[in-house]
Amino acid sequence: MNEITKSTDTYFVGHPKGLVTLFLTEMWERMSYYGMRGLLVLFMTREIVDGGMNMSAPEAMAIYGIYGASVYFLCVPGGWIADKLFGAQRTVLYGAIIITLGHYVLAIPYDKTFFLGLVLVSIGTGLLKPNISTIVGELYKPGDLRIDSGYTIFYMSINIGSMLGFLVCGYLGEKVGWHWGFGAAGVGMTFGVLQYIFTRKDLGNAGKESKLSENEDQTRYLTIFKWTSAVLGLIVITGFFGFWTIEPALLNQLLVNLIFIVALAYFVYLFFFAGLNQTEKNNIKMLLLLFFGSVLFWAGFDQGGSSLNLFAKDYTDLFIFGWEMPATFLQVANPLMVVIFAPFFASFWIYLGRRNLDPDTPQKFALGCFLMAIGFFVIIFGVEAALENEKAGVRFLLITYLFHTLGELCLSPVGLSATAKYSPSRYRGQMMGIWFLSSSLAAGLAGLLASKSLESGLPSMPGLFNQIIIALVVVGILLLIANKFVKATPLDNEK
């Protein structure tokens, strides 16, 4: 193996040099993604005279759910493409280029190109997202205590990028013009592509090659890829020209059902038909447990871009010294808090690990769920204040985002690390895709919940948030119970 890939390289704050490349690539990708996402529901629900698409809130929530679900659903074939065809490094590059094109298409002020842009961003993210996370794991040797810390530092890039996106794209979108915000996302992603091209050499052999076994034929996989791409391309093109349409709420429901079936089928395949040994099967049990914990957590978290975003825009006092700040600025709170607290969590996990006190991964997940439940409990008081006074104070959302952030740091980087550590090496890219599939299922569920629960506007929000609280508390308790019976063992990163 290349020494850059498999060494005790401490170039970047005690971590391998290649982490810089991945950190900056992820930062720019997340800048573009969250910058656009922060505008999405607001743009769709604004009246045409305000430059929007004049959709109802339930319809916009359904489309938001479809988009979020599609982005992460496509991480599964994205992982497969890297494992079987191109390797993670090249797949990340292809994905970054497609994302860039998608954002520039979104910048065109035309309804049909808007949806085409969403499709391109979804495809590109599916190629990039699972594979860049896989490469992070391959920078470390098996058993390297730095890996959880490395993923936490990598996670900081996500949040630095999202802060830039919310501030730059949010301001331009709400104050100058919606499509200016979408175009700014494209410019940010262009920086990401160029940076990756010029520093890719620092990754060494991490994620450079596909992970085919000796008895696998790449030609057959390439044929599958070409035919599948052709069929999907035909579907997109015919939809673009209006040959077919579908009700957003129905499509969201169908997509959620499909994602659930795909995820369950894949875990069944791995456990019974993939030829795994007993240690690997035990790890699959752990990853299945974490998968469902992740789904419930992110279904709650994704309310930040939908129901909580609308609450900020329509029912929160946004005036500061006579100036009304864009609603998207409030979403900066979460990534800013992540950047502040992530170094503490990174150091804290290492500190506990060296003393054999580090909580098991399911315990960290459970803590994350409980903290998020507290956040939703707080925002219910904000809704009551808005019902009484027409507008709620900003403090309710800020406190809510604080608890959501603390929960996120207990779950998200730890989940990425667990997927890298516990997945069988020949399925690591696909398993990273499955990890993101939990976010896909969560996004679809979040869209369904919001679209069905917000038909009456503000008065229906407490009911939505109470449902989420109950689900989070229940899944947290189940994770703690299951932790006593499910154990996993870190596996080698070798091909």
List keywords for this structure.
two-stranded antiparallel ribbon; Growth Hormone, Chain: A; single chain; mainly alpha; 495 residues; disordered N terminus
Q: Termini separation (Å)?
A: 10 Å
- How do the strands of the widest beta sheet line up side by side? 1-2
Query: What is the level 1 CATH name?
Result: Mainly Alpha
Rg is 21 Å
CATH structural fold name: Growth Hormone, Chain: A
* Shape descriptor: globular
The CATH architecture is: Up-down Bundle
The CATH superfamily name is MFS general substrate transporter like domains
Summarize the structure.
The protein is mostly helical. It has 15 helices and 2 strands. The chain has one domain: MFS general substrate transporter like domains (Growth Hormone, Chain: A).
How would you characterize the overall build of this protein?
Strands 1-2 form a two-stranded antiparallel ribbon. The chain contains 15 helices and two strands. It is an all-alpha fold and 495 residues long. The radius of gyration is 21 Å and the shape is globular. Helix 5 (146-176) packs antiparallel against helix 6 and helix 12 runs antiparallel to helix 13 (394-422). It has one domain (18-210, 218-482): MFS general substrate transporter like domains (Growth Hormone, Chain: A), CATH 1.20.1250.
